[in-house]
Design goal:
By secondary structure, the protein is mostly helical. 62% of the residues lie in helices and 11% in strands. A hairpin with a 7-residue loop joins strand 2 (72-76) and strand 3. The longest helix is centred in the last third of the chain and has 21 residues, at 90-110.
Length: 112
């Protein structure tokens, strides 16, 4: 087992392929939105705040940057046009799928 070799490969992938995930808060926001989507529930801004990932100001600022970069998409709620729902963009989903495959590959090579 070469723990740090594997960890180094993971970080290298993250730096090259996921530069938009600069902080743990960025990562947490994307994971929570994606997780809600997987469960068949799009996440609202209010629900994101209630997860207490960070302060509301920080989450709002980080989310605005992720939306601006096309990582997260804000859509109008179908039944309540005052509310917005947050979803992960298709291209980001593909990239995160590749990341998951890379983690699996590196894990089996270095952490088993």
């Amino acid at each position: 087992m070469k723990l740090f070799t594997g960890l180094k490969q993971i970080r290298e992938f993250e730096r090259q392929q996921l530069p938009f995930l600069r902080t743990v808060v960025d990562f947490d926001i994307v994971i929570e939105i994606g997780y809600a989507e997987e469960q068949g529930q799009a996440l609202s801004l209010k629900q994101l705040f209630l997860l207490n990932i960070s302060s509301r100001t920080t989450v709002r600022r980080k989310l605005a940057r992720l939306i601006e970069r096309g990582i997260v998409i804000r859509r109008k709620h179908a039944n309540d046009h005052r509310a917005s729902l947050l979803v992960i963009s298709h291209s980001t989903l593909k990239l995160l799928g590749k990341y998951g495959g890379t983690l699996t590959s590196i894990s089996s090579a270095h952490f088993m």
